[in-house]
Amino acid sequence: MANPYEISKLTIRIAEIMIDELKLEDVTPETFDPEIDLIDEVGIDSMDLATVALVLRDEYGIVIDEDDYPKLNNIRRIAEYIREKMDDGKEEG
After folding, report:
1. Cβ-proximal residues to 42 (8 Å cutoff; 6+ apart), any chain
2. Which of 5, 9, 13, 26 is the residue whose CA sits 20 to 30 A from 82?
3. CB 68 within 8 A of CB 81
4. 26 exposed, middle or buried (CB, 10 Å; 0-12, 13-18, 19+)?
5. How does pLDDT run across 15-67, given as a tens digit for each residue?
């Protein structure tokens, strides 16, 4: 059975959320480079990331601590962060 929290699936879903929530143009979830720096190269700010964090909280049931925002500077890192949080939840539950 496929893991719904595989990094590749998470990166596509996070890209979809960013494109929808931040109204990004000229990019698709499949072409959104998961390694691109969201602050320096895409131009999102902490308020944009807070918006995305709220959607991710609703979708995955995890809270992204504001203190962690600075290290979540690309989609791959956000996906890894979510997977770690999901794995931590499994161990606690």
Report:
1. 24, 36
2. 26
3. yes
4. exposed
5. 999 999 999 999 999 999 999 999 999 999 989 999 999 999 999 999 999 99
